[in-house]
TrEMBL record, chain A:
Keywords: Cell inner membrane, Cell membrane, Membrane, Transmembrane, Transmembrane helix, Transport. The keyword Ligase does not apply. The keyword Transmembrane applies. Belongs to the binding-protein-dependent transport system permease family. It is found in: Cell inner membrane; Cell membrane. The chain crosses the membrane at residues 65-88, 100-124, 136-159, 180-199, 235-257. PANTHER family: INNER MEMBRANE ABC TRANSPORTER PERMEASE PROTEIN YDCV. Residues 65-253 form the ABC transmembrane type-1 domain. It comes from the Bacteria. This is ABC transporter permease. InterPro entries: MetI-like, MetI-like_sf. It is a multi-pass membrane protein. Gene3D superfamilies: MetI-like.
TrEMBL record, chain B:
Keywords: Cell membrane, Membrane, Transmembrane, Transmembrane helix, Transport. It is a multi-pass membrane protein. Residues 72-276 form the ABC transmembrane type-1 domain. It comes from Mesorhizobium liriopis. It is found in: Cell membrane. It comes from the Bacteria. The chain crosses the membrane at residues 20-42, 76-94, 106-130, 158-178, 199-228, 260-280. Signal peptide: none annotated. This is ABC transporter permease. Belongs to the binding-protein-dependent transport system permease family. CysTW subfamily. PANTHER family: ABC TRANSPORTER PERMEASE PROTEIN, INNER MEMBRANE ABC TRANSPORTER PERMEASE PROTEIN YDCU-RELATED-RELATED.
């Protein structure tokens, strides 16, 4: 669509502002992480690596990091298996039943976090699950499940079912058909579900704040309590590490996707 | 096509037999849903009606206490502001994503996706550093001798922070709708003599509305339940409902009152979803027709 140059400039300018608003504020954690003083006041004074050292050497930080990693890895696998099974089940049901069950399985996305958190906390107090790995894994899995369901359902929607029929007519059993035809074709959906599930669990804070205890803290809980307790620049160091990791992963993913698409054309 | 044909040909008995397989596949997920979402929410409702004793006293207390009503109203006001800010900021951005070349689109997508994936706590931390009294904005203002702005512990600060966290939820659905709009329709209206402004308002805008509705509903609902950002950026005069719920349960151990507040928040969310569902579908059809 041809645009008036004036409109074009305005559009570009507003885009730039929004992009800055999205990205720039988070970057402020980078200079803060090298602060020489134990303070989060701006501007940082001097230069030091001590907050990165603290993140690695202080057991409070490193333990919570490994806790998050452990929980998120288990959740990613569990949510992906359950979500993929459910997506297959819904795909083979009558449209109305499938629609209803899908809506139910997506509720964790819209239920206000705090309401869910007090409910889960109440149940966990009764069942002694507060501060346990099982407790964290169960809660995070149900929160991550909708993302897997959406991703796998989307790839099932474009999947041509006649391929399964063809495989069956050529003598392949149901398991062989699934393994050699269905699974490879919907693998991208499953993979992105896995990634989403991992990120959901790794970031989850509200429910975690309620079901945590001194024996089991995840990284977001540790960050939150550190921000509310004192102005420890270690949070900025952690933020910087997470920011870099995310940028590399997402940027790399988009880059690979773009290259693959071009290769296919 | 062929599978559905064979399915409709087969008898009722085999259809009944087939129906159990799919349900069995979905069963583990559904059981987890009942155990970790259904039962806890039921517990919240139950406690709101039964603690300290059976009855509606917790709801009577909630709606009879002015402070609660102020916070309830504020929760809706802040969410509405956040939604408005998101729509205004996301619309040109999403449009630009559809209009630029592949390289620039990659860059714009990256700018949306990186904040989307960076932990929400880290992004809120960044806002604390920026907005605090000794933060970036106020240090700059002081250096320029321009006095200072109160940003942290104000509603403005909360809205700025929340809108930034929620913006991707507005941009992504908007982009996916705009991507599908046939620009030849706009060209047609232009060639029939419509001014650019008129072409935009009568052709492009109505076609993009389903995306606006979808994004606005998601943002509004997520904003209603926001907890971390208001807790860290807000002060006593920008408390939202979630913070009150947390306070009642964790600090005052008032499970009944906290539960009642939670149920109000939950009902508000579900009512909004129920209202928005048909609206979005209807607008979708309208868009397709015009």
């Amino acid at each position: 669509m041809a645009m008036h140059p004036c409109t074009r400039v305005m559009l570009g300018l507003s885009c730039l502002l929004v992009a800055l608003w999205l990205v720039a504020p988070t970057l402020v954690v980078v200079p803060m992480s090298f602060n020489g003083n134990k303070s989060l006041a701006f501007p940082p004074v001097g230069f030091s690596w001590q907050w990165y050292e603290n993140f690695v050497s202080n057991p409070e930080w490193s333990t919570s990091f490994f806790n998050s990693l452990k929980v998120a890895l288990i959740v990613a696998v569990l949510a992906t298996v359950l979500g993929t099974l459910a997506a297959f089940g819904l795909d083979r049901m009558k449209a109305r039943t499938a629609g209803l069950l899908r809506m139910l399985l997506l509720t964790p996305m819209v239920v206000p976090g705090v309401v869910l958190a007090i409910g889960i906390y109440a149940v966990y107090l009764d069942t002694q699950l507060v501060g346990t790995l099982t407790g964290f894994v169960l809660a995070h899995t149900i929160l991550a499940l909708p993302f897997v369901l959406i991703a796998v359902q989307a790839s099932l929607e474009v999947f041509d079912k006649r391929l399964e029929t063809a495989a069956a007519s050529l003598g392949a059993g149901r398991l062989a058909t699934f393994r050699t035809v269905t699974l490879p074709l919907i693998a991208p959906g499953i993979l992105s579900g896995l990634l989403f599930a991992f990120a959901t669990s790794f970031d989850e804070i509200i429910v975690s704040l309620f079901i945590t205890n001194p024996y089991l803290k995840t990284l977001p809980v540790q960050i939150f309590s550190s921000i509310t307790r004192d102005a420890d620049p270690t949070v900025a160091a952690v933020g910087t590490i997470l920011l870099c990791a995310t940028t590399i992963l997402i940027g790399g993913g988009l880059f690979l996707m773009g290259r693959e698409r071009r290769g296919n054309l | 096509m062929s599978t559905s044909d064979t399915r409709s040909d087969s008898g009722a008995a085999s259809r009944a037999r087939r129906n159990w397989g799919p349900l069995a596949l979905a069963l583990p997920a559904l059981l987890l849903l009942v155990g970790v979402i259904g039962y806890p929410l039921f517990t919240v409702v139950l406690r709101s009606l039964s603690q300290p004793e059976w009855g509606l006293q917790n709801y009577i207390w909630f709606f009879g206490t002015p402070v609660n009503l102020v916070v309830l109203q504020r929760t809706f006001t802040i969410s509405a502001w956040v939604t408005l800010v998101c729509v205004v900021a996301a619309y040109p951005y999403a449009y630009a994503m559809t209009a630029v070349g592949p390289k620039a689109r990659l860059l714009l997508t990256l700018c949306v996706l990186i904040p989307f994936w960076v932990s929400g706590v880290v992004r809120t931390l960044a806002w604390v550093i920026l907005l605090q009294d000794s933060g970036v904005i106020n240090s700059t203002l002081r250096a320029l001798d321009l006095g200072r702005l109160r940003l942290i512990r104000t509603q403005t600060g909360v809205v700025i922070g929340m809108a930034q966290v929620l913006l991707p939820f507005m941009i992504l659905p908007l982009y996916s709708v705009m991507k599908g709009i046939d620009l030849r329709l706009v060209q047609a209206s232009r060639s029939l003599g419509a001014s650019p402004l008129r072409a935009f308002f009568t052709v492009y805008l109505p076609l993009s509305l389903p995306g606006v509705y979808a994004g606005a509903i998601i943002v509004f609902i997520l904003a209603l339940g926001f907890y971390i950002t208001p807790a860290l950026l807000g002060g006593p005069r920008s408390t939202m409902l979630s913070t009150l719920v947390q306070n009642q349960v964790l600090s005052l151990l008032q499970w009944g009152r906290g539960g009642a507040m939670g149920v109000v928040l939950l009902l508000a969310t579900f009512i909004l979803l129920a209202l928005a569902g048909p609206l979005m579908r209807q607008k979708h059809k309208q868009g397709a027709r015009s």
